[in-house]
Amino acid sequence: MGAINWVAGEYDIVVVGLGHSGCEAALAAARMGAKTLAFSVNLDNIAMMPCNPSVGGPAKAHLVREVDALGGQIGICTDQSYLQMRMLNTGKGPAVWALRAQCDKREYYRNMRQVLESQPGLDLKQGLITEVVTDGRSVTGVKTATGMYYTCRAVVLTTGVYLNARVIVGEHSVASGPNGQMPATGLSDCLRALGLQLGRFKTGTPPRVSRKSVDLSQMEPQYGEDTPHGFSFIPSRHGRPQMPCFLTYTNPKTHEIIRANLHRAPLFSGVIEGVGPRYCPSIEDKVVRFAEKTAHQVFLEPEGRDTAEMYVLGLSTSLPEDVQVEMLRSIKGMERVQILRPGYAIEYDYVIPTQMRHSLECKTIRGLYCAGQINGTSGYEEAAAQGIIAGINAALSVRGKEPLVLGRDEAYIGVLIDDLVLKGTKEPYRMLTSRAEYRLLLRQGSADRRLTPIGRAVGLVGDERWSLFQKKQERMEQIRRALSAPVVPGSEIDERLEEMGTPRVKTQSTLLGILKRPEVSYSRLAVIAGLDISDKEAYTEVETEVKYEGYITKQMEEVERVRKLEARRIPQDLDYAMIHGLSTEGREKLSRIRPETVGQAMRISGVSSADISVLLVGLHRLGGRRA
Amino acid sequence: MIAAVSTPLGRGGIALVRVSGAAALNVARRVFTGRLEDHRVSYGKVIDPRDREVIDEALAWYMKAPKSYTKQDVVEISCHGGAVAAKRCLKALVLAGARIAEPGEFTRRAFLSGRIDLAQAEAVADIIAAESEASMKAAVYQLEGLLSRQLGKVRESLLEVLAHVEAVVDFPEDEVEDLREEDLEHKLRETLGILDRLLESSSRGRILREGIKVAIVGMPNVGKSSLLNAMLGTNRAIVTDVPGTTRDTLEECMELEGVPMVLVDTAGIRDTDDLVESLGVQRSMQALSTADVVIVVVDDSVGLTDQDRAILSATLRRPVIVAVNKVDRGLGKVSVEELKAAYPFPVVRISVTEEIGLDRLREVLLELAVGGAGFESVYVTNARHIEALKVAKESITEALEEVERGVPLDFAGMNVRRAIVHLGQITGETVDADVLDRIFERFCIGK
To answer: Which of A326, A410, B142, B328 could form a disulfide with B351 if both were Cys (CB 3.0 to 4.6 A apart)?
Structure first.
């Protein structure tokens, strides 16, 4: 204990963990001028993707675009390390278009590590944090397993799935982080001692196989798009060669093997206690729950350009390794497969997220922030989104400024955090477009207009990004102006309308009026009207605004309606015991979560509409007494 | 601690006086001499707590919290009917420490304690305001959750649709089979049908609460006044104080098979010498404009006059019954065939003085007023519910249009969500978690 008071360094902010959340938190804090120190248990594995080598997809792509718009890194690093890029949901409305990238895992790591190392004001260290030190009310520092003490004013915990982690493969179970990493032991006890309540979740990953051992010609290749989109609003595309993924299927024999070995599956034998995510079930779970299905999709995805390792998407499992081999070999094209790493389940501690404020600061301990999987989420994108907000707010608090809180109508990030801190989660939380009630306002194409000015205001958006943003806004304005040009019956443009399969105008209209027609696209209208097509992102956004104006207006009206309740503040010292008529559960939840507004209170699960009526009456009486 | 007489004052053989609150038992013990045990009926005397003077004999029972209507301690005392006894009993309770409840306060307590949901609370309010047997029934059915059940069906079906739309959007690379447009259309149409029926019932619902306005119009001396009196006769409403209607001397209330009616008596306009006949027509027109059903009375002994035709033409757009009066005189100057050919109205031949055809007139009136439907169906009577149903209907209609126009399905999804949200405002349910549960139940999703 001799080294306890040996101060190894003095910082504004310490970030614990350098996964996708920690990287964004550390970069945001340092870029905002806070003296920042970031720890990883293994500096060779920062920004690791221990599961799918993929970034994006519905709602997740939206998060990446938003983090980027605020001045984050995940979008840029993905654009610099993708193996394949595809826009999903293009047959659906613009609100749910979603970019998805396959990434080269090691390249992603190298890119991110380079950015972290070259960031002024940010120090990196390898070490295991075992204690967050406080003076009873506020954070004062952290201690490492080797006895080093660092003082700081804020700590951001981004420990991912490492807290008291246990890896399970069949009958084999061992204390371990993901992918053979060291687990974080000790910190959970410290957090409990600080009065925080922890829960336990479970997640899993499929086996990795060698490309040399599979017959890809037996499978259906899936290629990326020809002119790939990028995640970042800062373009960094330089025509990267893409790699295909391969589709095959399980069959009745695969399912038979799984059923015959269910008694050895930790999920069913009771070895696993943590709650797993429903959207990411293991193959044994899928076979049991959807017994009538005779085949499930299996994708083989490259993990990198310079490795033979492939990820077997669809076969997340914690069955014993011998069963995994047998199961894989029953699948077409995988008859002689060699497993490089078996699939496994991992159990870990998380902090019940309703103990956080919307700023991601802990309600009871000043300066302690939690972000990423420690808050019960799942996914690199969800982690990055919380990381940047925790980093920003830690830096703002060090400066003595008010925290940044994004609304549900402003960003998916806002929906994510609002859900976490008000409702909590019963399974690892994944972002879905269906969680956003105003998703037409939260298009991935509008992320920059929604958030880049906010990123600029907090000091995270640099001059390059800001100038690019302003130029795009100007171009969009020019496009809007150009679209207001009249279309006169009998004019040259009018005569060419039929080329696009749309009737001529009867009375004078505008290009805008023509663009509103469902059969007319901007790119085709541009040909006959000589419109600017140099910036696809800019004109696609304008096109969306024009075509879906009615829907967008409707959602904005709904936002206004709800905003009134959002504005109705609840005093933070309100004694809920004094409000008569609240249900027991409602009273308990309200006292614990302490919503700041009536709007927030309404979203807390267990608070009934009757409770809200009682609360409103109570607030009214209170208002009367105070007045 | 609140107390009130829970049955209408002065009506019925017994009156129920209710006390609710933490000290209900103590208060009740000061005025009731019998033993008060949880959920047991006992006999005793109601006394004045000041001098122990006996006010009445009564039965009483105690319901311990939370097993009571308000989830608080409740004591109910069943004393003799008649305004005096009940009021004295209530006064005794007040003397013992209770305060007189505000109108609807018991229900509000029940709602606030989570004992009943919003739809039920509003149903209770409707029961309190119920002015007739039929509207009472509608409110009771709502209370029993019939409306909630119907809405539950709609919600179930919409959730199913939404879960599918959302699953396709959120898991594009999973094996979620695409939602077929014809399936979606079918489901939405089905839902729209139910919403339509509920909304249709709402116009009847309003009628049940406020009474059907029946205007009796016609030229002077065709027998309007006597028809009015004949109709009122035994059917005169017990309660004359109809809320929401401006009562003046020209309106009378009655009940027909339990359906409340307000007869607007244009016969009340006395035809005096200085009133020209054209003015009589004008007055009748005014009465027409607010009526739900119009009875146009014509005189069989005179024949159709130009004024009669003017009135009939003016009423083309609302339910009308033509009553051909004075058929007992056998003059037959009004031809039923001719009337039916010229106007799309049912015609009933009557004689008020000889009581001919009056039953038939009542039948037709009831048929026009409430569509002849029995009262066993659900009636939506609450303005807030009607509004929510309208928004839901509008959203589903839009969703259908979008599907037809080929707008991407996620837009239809937004409208379906809107419909569910608004229906949820009636029953107090939200949508988020339910949609997700549905997605994960139905579709095999995941890496």
So the answer is: B328
